[in-house]
Each structure stands twice: as structure tokens, then as C-alpha cells.
Specification:
Length: about 350
Amino acid sequence: MIKKLLIATTNEGKFKEMSHELADTPFKIISIKDLDKKIPEPIENQPTIEGNAELKARYYSRKTGLPTLADDTGLFIKALKDWPGVKCARIADNDEDRNRLVQEKLKGRSRRQAVFKTAACFFEPKENICFTAIGQTEGIIIDRPRVKSGCLTWGYNPFFYVPTAKKTYAQMSVSEKNLLSHRGKATTKIKFFWGKYYRFRQLIAPVAVIVRQGKILMIKRRDSRSEYNDKWEFPGGLIDNGETVIQSLKREVLEETNLKIKILEPWPNILSETRSSYNYQVFLLPFIAQSLTGTVKISENENSEARWFSLKQAQKMPLLSLNRQMMKDKQSIELLKKYLTS
């Protein structure tokens, strides 16, 4: 049975960001608005974002009996001695007035650097597990809003400019913002806490080397961990409970690329790698496959790009380590060439 996870916020923007980042976890994610009964909001009276995040996580978990994830955010503007800080959501009653107050205090100042910080706290009532993660992003409070239609225009997003991205938060998609933002970084740390805390895992991941017209399909990983982000890999993923290897592979490829595939032949070798820092060992089970139907369309939650490569092109790309091993094995490459030239 899939566990419910309560994200303890009434802010639709926050819920959208956090649930998007947690879409690949084994939880059914619900918000406060999904509860059967209305729960009064707690008084956020702690002097730190960590304190308020834990207060909310414990409060809503006790009220519902559910594992709960709560966050609290502060905007720390250096020229204003870190004002408004932990009280950034409470300096006025609405976004327009809050942004107006900030602009008034920064009027005439050239130094407009700021840091957004989020504390995300996970509380599990049955085992009394409490874990808090911090994420932060440096930026600049600009004097005029910059927004893009369909993006995240709530809160301080239109005025918080991230120099490394050359965009404000309000010019980013959910996927872009989660990769760079304070909340996205904290939420990702929570995800890896879940895996690392409970047990060392041995993961089985079938992947597909999809061939078409002499080329192979690869996807670029979107991952907040720098060692994995923007690395190329073959589509595939972890086996869900009750699935066969082939069922899992076809499902994952369809989810990640929108392609239906036919399995042609298993790869000569099974590859494995231990990732101690994340408390798991992964076994990669590659298969050569061909696409049957569908136009390539990536899953933005996990990937940022998909591209067809020649074998030589693929071997030169920055690949994830096990995928790189695949492209170096002579026996495997000879087998692959048979399908690329047929």
C-alpha cells in the first residue's frame, strides 16, 4: 500500500513545486486542502526557519497521523541587515504589498544582494523520525518585476534574479526553478534522506539502447546532484514492485521518452556500481531495442533533453559512469554495431 505524505502548506505555489520534485517518490502526495477536516493553522512563533518548519511538521503530523513535510522560508537582504528574514511572509497581507515594502526600503541602494533560504522538515510520527534539510540560493532583488507567462509569478519570484541563470524565479519553469532554488535544494535533500536513513538499497535498473536509422537515443539527466546533472544516459529506470524487467523497461521508456519499444536483444554484460554517499548499489541491465511508435517527448521532472546520436558521437558525450562503461566495452559495441548497420 502506498503511503500518504502530507505537504503541510496552503500555498499553491509551494505545493506545486514540492509535489513536482517528489513525483518520483513512493508516496501519494496530498496537501492540507485534501484533508477531510479543516485544521487550524499553528502560530509560527519560532525565531528561525528551522524552528518554524519543525513546528509545522510536528503539528500537522500529530493532527493527521500522517508523515508530514513542512517548510519555512526566509528572504535575507544583505543591505537591510537580513531583513525581512524569517518574517518575509508576514510583513504584509499580500504579495503586492510585501514586494512594495521591500522596494521602498531598497530605494536608492546599489547593493541589492539577497539570499533565499528554506528549511524543509520531515516528521514521521510512528517512528518519531524528524529530519530537517536546508537549501539556499543567492540572488539580487531587482527594481522591476520580470515574469514569463505560465511560470511561477507568486511571492517574491518576479523580483528575485538569479545571476547564474540570468533569470528571475518568475521566468523559470517548475523544473528549472527546482533545480536552482532554495526550496528545490532542500526538498532534494529530503528525498535522499529517505533513501539513506532507512536502509542500504540494491537497485535494479533496466535501460534501453534504442536504435533507429543508424543512431541511438540518449537523454540528459536533470538532477540537483552536480555529479549527475547534465550527464547523458540511456532511458530506463528502477523496477516497481510486481513488475518484470521487461515490463519495467517498457514503462520507464514510455514515461521518459513517449516511445513504445520492441526488445531486440539483451546487452552482453550486467553492470553495477556502489554509491556509498547515497547508501545504495545499482545494477544496470541494458537491452538493445527499437522504437515502434511515438514522437520523442521527455519527462521534464527527470530529464532536460533527448537526442539521437551516432555511436561515435555518443562515446564522446559526458555520460553517467555506468553508461560510459557500456560505451567502452568492445564485445558490447560489436553487438550494437550489428543493429546500427542493419
